[in-house]
Specification:
0% helix, 5-stranded antiparallel β-sheet, 20 strands, 38% strand, mainly beta, Jelly Rolls
Length: 258
């Protein structure tokens, strides 16, 4: 082995492979052991003692290393050793962190969904919302007229009033309307069915309801009209100029606010 010089202060002698002479490290190392519990770490240039101290023992089974703001210490609480069942969350039991019995979904699901319990686990499900409905009595509507429907009465009113309004109990979005009708059939000119919000905003449910066949249905599940608690809605029908008017028209409708 060739002669090796003194090297820079704090460097250490390192092997350089079986066929090469040892050489001094580029990084320097501490000359003393440092404070009890500190560890050696790189500062990007040299190897130095950490400021924080670390535990000398492994600690209680299940504990993890955490900062107390000054040093790295063992946690008081224990954590599971395995990932447990798919979909479980970690929750405190008052002493330690444990996996939940119930599982939770991995994705948020469709926009507007809610977490719902099935009695065992939690899943992302559609917000069922509030349902508002109307069911009329048989009537013979006139041509080219807009009617505001009234519960359990004939289709005769042509303006929004206390008898026709359904008041919204919570802020949300009008998302779906389902309906059905029966009648003594007329000709096939199209009837428009709509929801009118606060007697100002008309939301068409269908512009092509055909009363030349009975019974019939209509729906719209792609609506997105905001409503606030205290607003009101009306169920509205606008008739065409029929060649032959249907008679004994009965309409049932349900609007969903989510």
């Amino acid at each position: 082995m060739s002669h090796i010089g003194k090297g820079t202060s704090g460097t250490i002698l390192q092997g350089n492979g079986t066929s090469s002479a040892p050489k001094y490290s580029t990084a320097t190392y501490p000359s003393t052991a440092g404070t009890s519990g500190t560890i050696l770490r790189s500062d990007g240039t040299n190897i130095v003692n950490s400021t924080a101290t670390y535990p000398a023992t492994a600690g209680t089974s299940g504990t993890i290393l955490r900062s107390d703001g000054t040093n790295i210490v063992n946690s008081t609480a224990t954590y599971p050793a395995t990932a447990t069942t798919t979909g479980q969350l970690l929750r405190a039991d008052g002493t330690n962190w444990v996996g939940t019995t119930a599982t939770y979904p991995n994705t948020a699901g469709t926009s507007g969904n809610q977490l719902r319990s099935d009695g065992t686990n939690w899943s992302s499900q559609e917000n069922t919302g509030n349902a508002y409905f109307i069911s009329t009595q048989g009537s013979t509507p006139a041509d080219s007229t807009t009617y505001f429907m009234e519960q359990s009465n004939g289709i005769t009113l042509t303006n929004s009033n206390m008898r026709t309004r359904r008041y919204i109990c919570r802020t949300g979005t009008l998302t779906k309307v389902y309906g059905a009708f029966s009648c003594t059939t007329g000709t096939s000119e199209s009837v428009t069915i709509a929801i009118v919000i606060n007697n100002t905003t008309t939301v068409n449910v269908s512009t092509s309801v055909n009363m030349s066949a009975s019974p019939g249905t209509f729906s719209n599940t792609g609506l997105s009209s905001a409503v606030s608690a205290g607003d009101f809605i009306d169920f509205v029908m606008t008739t065409p100029a029929w060649v032959t008017n249907p008679t004994n028209v009965i309409i049932n409708m349900t609007a969903i606010i989510q």
